[in-house]
Amino acid sequence: METVKNRHYYNQHIGDLKQRLKDSLDTDALRDLHQVRPWRHFATVIRLLAVVGLCGWALWQTRWPGLWVPAAILQGFNLLGFIILLHEWVHDSIFRTRRPGLQRLLGLLYAAPTAISATQFRIWHLDHHNELGSEVDDPKRAHLSPKRNARWFKLLYATPALFFIYAKAAGSEVKTYDAVDRRRINLERLGNLLVQLGIVAAISMTGGGWVLMRIWFIPLFFVFPLAFSLNRLGQHYNIDRNDPAKWSSRVDGNPIWHFIFLWSNFHIEHHYYPRVPFYNLRKLNRDLRPFFRKNRVENLGYVKIVWGWIVRNRKPHTDWSRAES
Question: What is the pLDDT of residue 324?
């Protein structure tokens, strides 16, 4: 049974947030931040592909086995970068004008490394923006956020179990889509499965099982879930439900996190202005700091977030500064 979506919970419940943001930012500067520069996007694509090649070489070779662990870690985090590229595709932040055929191809290519459906990710993510704040209609909150506030269960998200958790969440949500989208999603999933099987076969035949473990299995199934989970912890888990300005977490980060996460640590900024390209989010963060100070939006770090999530065992989508959370 298909479910009616797009109730736009976010826009209906944010009050005067848009006006407060407008009063805090220079109009010309904000217009410039929305400028799409395709060369910046594709420079990032080239960087990610270069890291894939470099890490692939380091994990294949046997002369310097000391490179295997750092290369596997970097490769796993690098895989997350393709999802962030897909995120830019969802928000039409690649080209200045629409190019449907090329954009469709890029969406499929960006989704392939982690074997997710581009169509599902697009619908899922746009619904997340429209329904942010809703416990029922925001698909990330309704289906993907842990429903058990137990440390062992939370830690599963940073293990290969993430793929089963995500598949179950996606399966629950896809039931609400129309038949055309469901058919397309199934075809994309099948295509990605064939791509992954082809990669496995090619590496196995040319390098053997141990090379396959190093190059494909460990980065994808053991490092990528950690990168994905850490990135998501900095999005909407520590929030103030009473203030729409704080429905996302603020994580200013540092140059290392900016590099590893492709500026996706600036998640609160992205929800304020979804069409600002990822390479402009750091500048948007700086421009918003007077607004953050005025509205007491605290800057969090990933160490503090992990401490609150695991050690203090805080619940998702609550204010972690309150004891009852």
Answer: 53
